[in-house]
Fold these 3 entries.
Entry 1:
Amino acid sequence: MFQSLEFPKEALIGKGWRSLPRRFPVVSPATGEAVVEVADCGSEEAAEALEEAVAAQRAWSQATAYERAGVLRRWHDLILAHEEPLARLMALEMGKPLKEARGEVRYAAGFVEWYAEEAKRVYGETLPSQFPHKRILVRYEPVGPVYGITPWNFPAAMVTRKVAPALAAGNSFVLKPAEESPLTALYLARLFLEAGGPPGVFQVLPTSDPEALSRPFLEDERVRKLTFTGSTPVGLKLYGEAAKTLKRVSLELGGGAPVLVFADADLERAVAETVRAKFRNVGQSCVAANLILVEEPVAEAFAEAYAERVKALKVGDPLLEETDIGPLVNRAALEKVEGHVQDALARGASLVAGGEAKGLYFAPTVLLDVRPGSRIFREETFGPVAPIATFQNEEEAVARANALPSGLAAYLFTRNLSRAFRVAEALDYGIVGVNDGVPSTPQAPFGGVRRSGLGREGGRWGLEEYLEVKYISLGL
Ligand code: SIN
């Protein structure tokens, strides 16, 4: 199947594709085999791309909003027209099951569509002055060249969620895709050029040495914005580096979401949505359910129905239509998942589904009676393991959720409207899904509080991250 799939393997720098003698392998987690070797960029290519980005920014920021919107609209259409190769590429390079990968292509295209429309709505403002001879004008201008670092778990949507608003606002963008999944990003860049995107406006530099590649962008005063999705430790480091040149930053960092299931919930729906919240992308999502807390009176019924559904999930080759659960991305991911399960079992939890590994595949797993001190309660598992524990009342549930270190997403299930508002407002999280296991969508603000980062992506908030405010005082 893949022998016939054409995809770019070179870096996109300045005016076009750059073939480099240095290469690194992209390894399929499903087979352990190298899919292809891609161009391995270093500091020399970074320095060149930086100059190109600065030059491209000038012209692109002066294009009309309608011209920018037109490019984004055509890019959107091309992404949708290439849903199948993009989905297959994702399945191949990072193991996302095909049917989910198709969904991600549509999700990714949704950001491009949204910002194609928003590009035309970057309105200025006029403010009343206290002086009759003065006028006060506020303009929104592009922030400046942007450097972006995207993760492997959503190789298409995390690219478009950053690139589309940055470009809509009139910025150039240099992307460093994850080492595990550069092919999807390069394919998106190819479609951007086909859509009439000017060379240099969007550049993609794959690398096996992220630190060396990032350094020139972090150190250069002319790069005015850093956007990153990834782990909290790396985000903290980048934040410190970006501070030295006072760059604007958006950091979408670790999650570890709690789910609160109240006794008054629609149990069937709570089970179905919590399965989605946990097992989407094999649990490898920042908003994945990490800890499921169920109110004592319904805990047994919930756990039984949950385990039944989890046992029905199909583990297998990500390229097969029926697969629900593909492999984990690499050995480190597998070892973390295994470590969490072993630790929980050693502390007294019981295993009601899954628990076994084969290659990089880890069977979808359900643990009951997980004890409070367990690692799985404190750390983000990023894998297909659902730990279930109980709570006695609303106050305890909210307190336990808010005691977790991250603040990206939380979920709650109830049919009581007052409780839905009360708990959603009390949860110290950037996103709250009420009776909804997958709240992510292009028009809404995605982002977290506390150790989950800074800034928002999606909707008008995502565009504001790439705009600078200018005030013009006009004396008549
Ligand atoms: C992420 O895991 O960072 C993104 C998940 C999403 O957009 O829903």
Entry 2:
Amino acid sequence: MAGSTSNRAVLVVDFGAQYAQLIARRVREANVYSEIVPHDLSAAEFAARNPAGIILSGGPKSVHVEGAPQLDPEVFDLEVPILGICYGAQLVAQQLGGEVDRNGRAEYGRTQLTRLGDSALFDSDVPVEQPVWMSHFDAVVEPPPGFVVTAKTKDSPVAVLENVERRIFGVQFHPEVVHSPYGQRLLERFLRDACELGPDWNTADIIEESVKAIKQQVGSDRAICGLSGGVDSAVAAALVHRAIGGQLTCVFVDTGLMRAGEGEQVVETFRRHQGIELIHVQAADEFFGALKGVVDPEDKRKAIGEKFIRVFETASAGIEDARFLVQGTLYPDVIESGTKNAAKIKSHHNVGGLPDDIEFELVEPLRQLFKDEVRAVGSKLGLPDEIVQRQPFPGPGLGVRILGEVTPDKVEILQNADVIVRAELADAGLEADIWQSFAVLADIRSVGVMGDERTYERPIIVRAVTSEDAMTADWARIPHDVLATISNRIINEVDGINRVVYDITSKPPGTIEWE
Ligand code: XMP
């Protein structure tokens, strides 16, 4: 989509907390296009983007702290509807002449909100008393001139403030989180009534606009797309194919480190069903060669990543006149790149991640989309559920789920165990609640007894976690009888395994993967 859409955006101003992304997603869920922008844009820069509305996100603890981020005051005079959330609400109050008290008004977690009088934000059937999610230290105690107070809590006398004429609003609670059950309706009311926006951001339009933009960018040239088997590259390829058909060639590098049946599924889906020209590079031997004797997790990632680049380069060199490279970059990657991230925990340089000095021009049709939008686009383009609903899978694949040296026979053992884990969780109807579930092959042996024989074999570790975004995770509370079936089946059906353990570590302190 090359950074353009005909929809006027609602700009979500990022004040540095983790809430901006969630707000932007909630706006999109209301079928309104949203973008995240930094808080230090000038009023002129805001105006140049011609926003349909502005939402100020939550942020640091207090507007009173020295250096606390502010909004260019002239933004309030742009006559664009504004909704301040939490810190954003306090900014509205402080910058327009109200009072924010810094003493003893903190509220964290679930709080009871009481509505006061008529409101332009609450639908009339929303209860007078409702639970909301709070996370703030200071509180607005005096609204600015021209504002009315339409809700309070025990410790926030000004929990919602409104100036309907200027279309400027503030809410102290977080309407974007699920713990505020009427929050989404409040956001929708702001979008519909204050911003006068209809629900005009939908999957069919996204596809149509992307196709137009891709055609314009690529013209009559050729494009290449590396498929990993994952959702993002699959949807990017299908979208670009919709736009330029036979000018697209996909390259699928089979590393031998995918889960059972995944390689075949990629080939089947893209070559047969989508009719996309596909080069299937069977490179398992090369990858096993590169992994011989490598045991350190970071060295494995590096070996796999480097081998991938070389194999991909060789395969794509054979595609004559290719000028464009399709990448499945998503909106969260765009937002996050450039922010100073926390210490490196694992080098997530992806397999499929290509070097910076690549000679292609990039086509990134998913740059404006969140993951759930990408999945919806994929389904609409006819990709099967096994691909669009697929769990996240690490680029280095089973290479980081086999502790110690990676060999073909260990991959086979792990694939056989992994199939059982996934099948049993699917059978029990648990997949939708689980973020990732898989088997890990440990690098130790233990004594067991099978029949009358002593065994001395490896254990399989079963890992299943719930998560929102992979940054934090909890171990999934899988019913014991499901775990029992998984254990029995793995021991009976997978040679080389005599014990099954379930990982009950959250993240932090653990990570989702074992390496
Ligand atoms: P961890 O193990 O750090 O994983 O909790 C967080 C998420 O990232 C995935 N992961 C990777 N993805 N290349 C990737 O593309 C990698 O090297 C890699 N390591 C972990 C992991 O599956 C989880 O979704």
Entry 3:
Amino acid sequence: MTKTVHILNGPNLNLLGQRQPEIYGRETLADVEAACAALGATLGLQVRLMQSNHEGAIVDQIHAARHEAAAIIINPGALTHTSVAILDALNAFEGPVFEVHISNVHKRESFRHHSFVSLRAEGVIAGLGTEGYQAALRRIATLLAAT
Ligand code: DQA
């Protein structure tokens, strides 16, 4: 059976391509979804991308992934730096988790340097632009093939 990877995105990422393009680029979340779906097809993985501006909705999406996904790629946006609830939800998920940031958060304000999600993530990708999602997907394919 084809394994599914959920790609979860937090607050303001619905505006990807429009907000601060000098930091986040011109590609939209729909472009990310299309690129990851195409790559997933070559890797034998199905991809489902979601976005929410609400912390509780993201917690619910992580709970749903417990039954529906073999792995999670998550860009929690600003909730990266604040949300113990998202960390707790990810700790209740059994598969690999990869944290993606489009920008290099370590080059930016110091409040972006700490991530609660990194305590759970197998890997963290920052500063590769939207290609970071695809890098995470490739690594997940390697990990899942070994299980
Ligand atoms: C982000 C970095 C966060 O600090 C910021 O709040 C975002 C996007 C990134 O993808 O670079 O919304 O997660």
